[in-house]
Amino acid sequence: RLDRSQLIGQTLAARDIRHVLSHQNFLWLWVGSLGSSFAMNMQIIARGWLVYEITESPMDLAWVTMSFMLPTVLFSLYGGVLADRLPKKKIIIWAQALNCAATAVMTVIILEGRVTFWDFIGFGFFNGMILALSMPARQAFVPELIPDHLLFAAMGLNTTGWNLARIVGPALAGLLIAVLAGGDNTSAFGVGMVYVMIAALYGLSALTMLLITQNGRVKQDTQQNAWHDVREGLNYVAKHPPVLGLIVLSIIPFLFGMPLNTLLPAFNEQVMGGGPDNLGFLVSAMGLGAIVGSLMMATMGGLLSKGLWLIGSCLVWGALTAAFGLSEAHGLIFVLIAAIGWVSSWNMSLNRGMLQMQVDNQMRGRIMSIDMMSHGLMPIGVFPISLVAEYYGVGNALVVSGLALVVLTVLSVILIPSVRTTDRAVV
């Protein structure tokens, strides 16, 4: 039975979620984000499946991932400057429209049977560049559309939408490929039809953004050049230890928690002997766990000692990844990947919400871009883990990845003072 305080807490949490969704501008932003999230998650399955069928190499999966992540390092800081200087609504609309056009071109190449590994590299780089230039605006837009006290609920709902797409999108993509390919695993037709749906989703996402009535705040002083704004953002992080600590605790999981996502097509084939439908179900199981984690975060804005919970969730994430790499029983594999989805989503939602609360309004776009740029460092972890997978098997590689996440998290707490300050208010 629930005591009175628990009932009150659940009632307030549910009320916060309803209040967030009652803000029409945020609702339309959330719906548009949901469409683009479906597109991205369907693309992960379609791209990963066809690339692995073409090359049969875990390292080539890593190269495709790098082509998508490298622009995050190169362009995210400029995306933060754009988010603070230009209307955020227009940035997002243009980004989704360009993604729609590029996906349409890629669809034609795939359906004509002319697609190569290098097409995925080029398309990945373009997608990554557009994401890097627009995502800071999308993230910084959220606090401008809702009151501060609803921010954690809004961040949780944003992550919930992303994870809903992780549940339905991959399963739908995998099933479409399996059905339309008619048993021919090397057929590009099924992948091409998935890309048709992806282009449509990007187009619908751009149209949805037109319904938002606010353009977003812009930086009034734009006399300085872009590099001045970039340096100002970097100096802000350096002078505010809680912000730096949160970014560090975001980088480490991206380095050694995310290689699982890249290597999942190889794990699906090497360990489970599965086809594209099974790969879709694996990603959907991860998404099912993730949506539970993000909904939990949406109802836990009053959680105490958030910094300790953040560190603990990093450790659990690493332990679960190592256990996943050791598993061979199909039932256990699905349970573990759902658990990884749950803890990783909860961890990322908590980190992003804490970061939004720590940052001054006029710096939010640039700080979100610095956080995003740090995520572009993911290939630094993906490549050595993929090399282990190439020579010693994907299961062993994931064990190494999980243990590295645990060890680096512990070392960061011991050696980096700012990691121990994430609960402090910025002054």
What do these coordinates show?
- The protein is globular, with a radius of gyration of 21 Å.
- It contains 16 helices and no strands.
- It is mainly alpha-helical and 427 residues long.
- Helix content is 81%, strand content 0%.
- The longest helix is centred in the N-terminal third of the chain and has 32 residues.
Number of strands: 0
Report the mean per-residue pLDDT as an integer.
81
- Strand-and-helix sequence, N→C? HHHHHHHHHHHHHHHH
Helix content class: over 70%
* Principal-axis shape: globular
Class from helix and strand fractions: mainly alpha
What's the helix count?
16
Q: What are the low-pLDDT stretches, counting only 5+ consecutive residues below 50?
A: 1-14
- % residues in beta strands: under 5%
Rounded to an integer in angstroms, the radius of gyration calculated over CA atoms is: 21 Å
Query: What oligomerization state is this entry in?
Result: single chain
Q: Give the terminus-to-terminus CA distance.
A: 42 Å
Note the main sheet: none
How are the elements arranged and paired?
Elements lengths: L3 H18 L2 H32 L2 H28 L2 H24 L5 H29 L5 H31 L7 H21 L16 H14 L1 H16 L2 H12 L5 H23 L7 H21 L3 H29 L5 H12 L2 H15 L1 H22 L12
List its traits.
81% helix; globular; 427 residues; single chain; mainly alpha; 16 helices
Sum this structure up briefly.
This protein is an all-alpha fold.
